[in-house]
Amino acid sequence: MKHFNFFNFGFASYDPVPDQEEASTPEYRDDKYLTSEQIHAVASKKPNLILWYVLTSVFATLATFFFVQNMQMRRRGGFQTGYSNELVLATPAIQVSQVRFTGGIKFHDNGTMYRDTGPGTQYVGRPSPELDAAWDELIGTRYLAFTDRQKSAFDVEISRSNEDGLYRAGPDVFHSLHCVDKLRRTIDGYLYQISEQVDETYQNILHIEHCLDFLRQLVGCSSDLTPIPLVYSIGAGFPVPDFEQLHTCRSFESIRKWAMKQNEDALRTI
Ligand SMILES: *[C@@H]1O[C@H](CO)[C@@H](O)[C@H](O)[C@H]1NC(C)=O
Hints:
Transmembrane segments: 50-68
InterPro entries: UstYa-like
Bound molecules: 2-acetamido-2-deoxy-beta-D-glucopyranose
Keywords: Membrane, Transmembrane, Transmembrane helix
Distance between the termini: 81 Å
Family: Belongs to the ustYa family.
Pathway: Mycotoxin biosynthesis
Number of helices: 7
Helix content: 40-55%
Radius of gyration: 33 Å
Strand order of the largest sheet: 1-2
Structural class: alpha+beta
Shape: flat
C-alpha cells in the first residue's frame, strides 16, 4: 500500500521498518519512537505536488465562488436580509421560518369534498362582520408615516405631506393583502348572492383587474418551488394535490408589528 504523505512530516505515514533493522535495534521497538533512519527517510521524501496543486485549485475556486456570491448578496440582498430595492428600514423585522400552509381541499372517506379550514383566525368563508374585522386587523395602516430624517433611507421618489410634513409609503405586502381582500369582497357578493356587495362600477372593475394582474406578477415573482405532491385519496378514488406543505416564509406578523410601530413613532414626532 502506498502511504499518503501530504505534509511530508506526518508520523502517521512513515514507511514500515525493515525486519532486520527491527532486529538490530531492539531498544527502539516501542511504537512511540522513530529511529534516526526513519526520521531521515520521512524527511527526505518528496511532497505530493499534484495533490497540492489540485487542493489549492479547489480552494481557490471555492474562495472565488463564495466571494462572488457574497458580492452579489451585498448588491442585491437576499430573502433573509432584505433585497436592495426593499424598504431598508423594515429589514431588521425580517424573520424567516418554515410554516405549514393550511386550507387544503380534501375528501372524506365517503367521497365528499371539503375545505380543511385549519386552526386560528379565519379569513375566508360565508361573509360576516368577524371576517371583515379579521382582514381590517391584518392589513391595518397600509401607508405608514416616515419622518424627514428617515426619508434618506428611500431610493424612490416620495412626496411630503402638506398637512403634517411626514412622508408616506407602505411595504408592498400590505397592498397585496388589500388586493386579496378586495377580490374576496367582490367575489363573495356573487358567491353568496349579496346584491349590496356586488359592485359593477367601472372603477371597481378597474380595481379588480389591477389586483388580478398585480397578484399574477407577485406570484410569478416569488416563484415558490415548494412541491405540491399528488397523493392517492381513498375518498376521491384518485390522487389529489396535498396543498398543506411546509413553506419558507418571512413572518408577516413581525413585519406588521414593525409597520404599526413605525407609523405610531413617526406620528408622535409631529
Ligand atoms: C361524508 O362524511 C362526512 C364526515 O364524516 C360527513 O360530514 C358527510 O355528511 C358525509 N357525506 C355524505 C354524503 O354522507
